[in-house]
Amino acid sequence: MVVITRTALDFIRHAAAHTDPEEFIALLRKNRKGEIHEILVIPQSDYGRGFSSINTWSYSYTINHCGTVHSHPNGNNLPSRADLRFFRTMGEAHLIIGYPYRDQDVRAFDQEGREIGLKIAEVKKRRG
User: Fold this and answer.
1) Does the first or last residue of the chain, that is N or C, have fewer Cβ atoms within 10 Å of its Cβ?
2) Residue 22: how many CA atoms within 13 Å on its side-chain side?
3) Are 18 and 63 within 8 A, CB to CB?
């Protein structure tokens, strides 16, 4: 099961919608609770129609990312063969968000492309 914060998911939804019709791609980072809470947009990444890629020379391997996220503007949120090859080299959890970029349009996969659960960690409001 992958847990993502509401803020991180909203950022992904917004970025995917505003990159459409090209694919959006970024790295994911977890907080101390183990929730995905940061979306790392890497300089010199390629956003294209039907593809996206991260320039691995544009970031430090010490950033401790846990996986990736990318969009599929065609609405299909299943990994392609190219996605599966990419997953194996880029961390443990991978999200794909398909058009129209709603919460229910996001799916999570492991390094082998097997679907894993996705839970949204809602922010608890403080009293006072």
Assistant:
1) C
2) 11
3) no
CATH code for position 69: 3.40.140.10
Asked if residue 26 lies in contact with residue 39, where contact means CB atoms within 8 angstroms, the answer is: yes
Cα separation, 18 vs 26, whole angstroms = 14
Mean pLDDT of the chain: 89
Instruction: Kindly list the catalytic residues.
Output: 23
Domain presence at residue 127: no
In a domain, 126, yes or no: no
Inter-CA distances, 92 with 25, 48, 66, 88, 95, Å: 16, 24, 6, 8, 10
pTM of model > 0.85: yes
- As for how many domains the chain has, the answer is 1
